[in-house]
């Protein structure tokens, strides 16, 4: 298996990890997202007209897949979906051969979701194409972190949405709770948000948040008591228990829910004004009470909408020239 950390130079349009992005790059992507969102349909659909993108999905997905696909179509891109369930992957074809086949068919960029951490690095290396990581194993989900960032910037009062720097989230506390160990969403967020000044608190039981398995960066801490973690939280991100990755680990669900479920009582008592987020899919009544998901503090549907917008910007960055990307982001007038 390939190390999840990329070794060679990247294709400039790829997004394999949030570490690929400088703060200035994040800022450019946010401005570009807003610019694309405001653009008339007719103009937007010409931007990448006739270009070809393949969506290669080895794991199930609703939000990520659909939003990448709709984002691509809104830019005029022709898309094709290859999933492990209905392709030669089922017959044993390797990731390398699948990638080379897609390239031979004219794909200019591949959006990959894969169960193995590091798969996007391998795919980029063998195809030389820009690769957008749509979630690799327990490693990263960079586009999710970007859409989560845009959701936070939009929903919390007083924050600038389209331009960020190292202080943009100063004074903001974000609590991420649940199956941190298996969550690529938690990892990408815990890497990106502190770089913009946020304080990130990770919360969960030892089985799902072992101290030694999680390299804690600056401004990231662990608090095992959920009530204490919630006191003073501006944002709460809840995570699903990833049953498909538990690998024999037995979890006492009743005990888990007693300590870590975001219930109405808990929210009312400890964080009555915090923004509630969840990357989906959520299991109502397990990690989160359904009433909270549907309630006024929830930003869950906003996250989905921002996913569509942010992924258009990522596709543009992957397929347009750097000059064109910066021009559209409003940074330079060419
Ligand atoms: C997540 C994923 O697949 O990493 N979902 C998503 O992309 N929005 C989280 C999960 O599966 O629980």
Q: Topology of this structure?
A:
Blueprint (H helix, E strand, L loop, with lengths): L22 H16 L2 H4 L7 E6 L5 H12 L3 E6 L11 H10 L4 E6 L4 H9 L3 E6 L5 H14 L17 E5 L6 H9 L6 E5 L16 E3 L3 H5 L4 E4 L14 H8 L3 H7 L4 E3 L12 H4 L6 H20 L2 H7 L6
Helix pairs in contact: 1-12, 3-12, 4-5, 6-7, 6-12
The site of N-carbamoyl-L-aspartate has 12 residues, from helix 3 and helix 7.
Write a short abstract of this structure.
The chain is an alpha/beta fold.
What string, H for helix and E for strand, traces the elements in order?
A: HHEHEHEHEHEHEEHEHHEHHH
Q: Which class of secondary structure composition applies to the elements?
A: alpha/beta
Spatial strand sequence of the major β-sheet: 7-6-5-8-9
The first-level CATH class of the largest domain is given as: Alpha Beta
CATH superfamily of the largest domain: Aspartate/ornithine carbamoyltransferase
C-alpha end-to-end distance: 43 Å
The share of residues in extended strands comes to 5-15%
Morphology:
globular
The CATH architecture of the largest domain can be named as 3-Layer(aba) Sandwich
Compute the gyration radius: what is it? 20 Å
